[in-house]
Design brief:
The chain has helices at 27-34, 95-98, 288-295, 345-348, and strands spanning 13-14, 19-23, 36-42, 47-53, 59-65, 72-74, 78-82, 86-92, 105-114, 120-125, 131-135, 140-143, 151-154, 170-176, 179-185, 203-207, 213-218, 221-227, 230-235, 240-245, 250-256, 260-267, 270-276, 303-308, 314-322, 329-334, 339-341. 7% of the residues lie in helices and 46% in strands. It has a single domain, classed as Neuraminidase. The relative contact order is 0.18. The chain contains 4 helices and 27 strands. The strands form 6 sheets. The chain has a 6-stranded antiparallel β-sheet, covered by helices on one side. A 5-stranded mixed β-sheet has the order 6-7-8-9-27. A 4-stranded antiparallel β-sheet has the order 5-4-3-26, covered by helices on one side.
């Protein structure tokens, strides 16, 4: 496994928001070859970043500010993201805005649900195009509602009531055949924030259809993903990316993560994994991750790591410097080279009149 630091791109990309992106030598080529751009969220600085390639071959960056930006879902035509108290849906509308700038997707704000602060984590659309999100505060899967803050869809059987208590820290969602398949939680606890006492080795994966706990003994797992007939997951507190055998619950490592891993997109034979520089104390404190990185003499990083699923090698990187220390979620935008997102929807909405 390659844990060497990325080779800086000759032209460093600096955003107006006060951070720097440094790409490994072949990161831009990887974006071009896989025909994707990336949407990356950070609640630490309240921003959604769209990363792509400009016509001149340099990295492009489009930034939109959200208070506590967390879960992200993206496809060619839309982007969903969660903020402190709202769910936002952006739709692609290139038109004249992209002409002459090389932009091939322009995402405009179109729908906003006022949810209140639900601590929304990962999200995805099902086969019917319905958004499903992990409502971490209420320990359930939910969908947006026109009348209420949310419509609950499913809860683990060990959760005895629908309460705003973050009882198990439900956080990750894997879809299969257009339906919720596997969710991750930090512990199977049923008291207010009970998971905090079981962060090490208390993590579980749950089959949504059967309500069966299919894996135990993980440390703060995140971002389960079903692809290529396998279940991939981030064993974040151990600094590990790997697979889980659903028949035995066994976790097998594919790659070491040099940072707190959270947020993942599967792109063909590659996994794009979000990394954060772990905070001291709080829910990140006293995790095996810190000891493991120290043993390997690795400084935790903030950025994206691209892992070849066939070899387990970290083939490319995008590191964030400056004011950004933590990432939350990562989504791939297919068949997109140079995406852009319009500014603060509260400011531009008056101008977004389509006929």
């Amino acid at each position: 496994m390659d844990t060497s630091p990325p080779q800086p791109d000759p032209a460093k990309t600096t955003a107006k928001s006060g951070f720097r992106m440094d790409a490994s030598r072949n990161f831009k080529s990887w974006l071009v070859e896989t025909r994707v751009s990336l949407a990356v969220s950070t609640y630490q600085k309240g921003a959604l970043f769209l990363v792509g390639i400009k016509p001149d071959g340099n990295l492009s960056l489009s930034t939109h500010r959200f208070s506590r930006c967390m879960g992200v879902y993206a496809d060619r035509d839309k982007i969903w993201t969660a903020s402190l108290h709202q769910l936002w849906r952006f739709a692609n509308h290139a038109g004249d805005l992209a002409r002459g700038e090389g932009v091939d997707r322009v995402y405009r704000p179109r729908v906003a649900y006022v949810t209140g602060d639900l601590d929304i984590h990962e999200m995805a659309e099902d086969a019917e195009g319905r958004l499903i999100f992990v409502n971490t505060l209420f320990s359930c899967l939910a969908t947006p509602s026109m009348e209420r803050s949310f419509t609950p869809l499913w809860q683990p059987t060990f959760i005895s009531s629908l309460a705003a208590e973050d009882r198990c820290h439900l956080n990750g969602l894997a879809m299969r055949d257009g339906r919720p398949f596997i969710v991750s939680a930090v512990a199977d606890t049923d008291v207010v924030q009970g998971w905090r006492d079981h962060r090490v080795k208390g993590g579980i994966l749950i089959d949504v259809a059967t309500n069966e706990i299919v894996a135990r003994g993980l440390t703060m797992p995140h971002s389960p993903r079903w692809a290529h007939g396998r279940l991939y997951v981030l064993n974040s507190g151990e600094g590990s990316f790997g697979t889980v055998d659903l028949s035995t619950g066994t976790f097998t490592e594919i790659a070491l993560c040099p940072g707190y891993a959270r947020g993942m997109a599967i792109v063909g034979r590659y996994a794009v994994i979000g990394l954060s520089r772990a905070r001291e104390g709080g829910s990140f404190g006293d995790l095996p991750l810190s000891t493991r990185l120290a043993r390997h003499r690795i400084e935790p990083r903030c950025g994206l790591m691209i892992v070849d699923l066939e070899t387990g090698s970290a083939v490319d990187w995008l590191t964030f410097g400056g004011e950004v220390d933590e990432l939350f979620d990562v989504a791939a935008i297919p068949d997109t080279r140079h995406p852009a997102i319009m500014g603060d929807p509260r400011r531009v909405a008056r101008q977004l009149v389509d006929i």
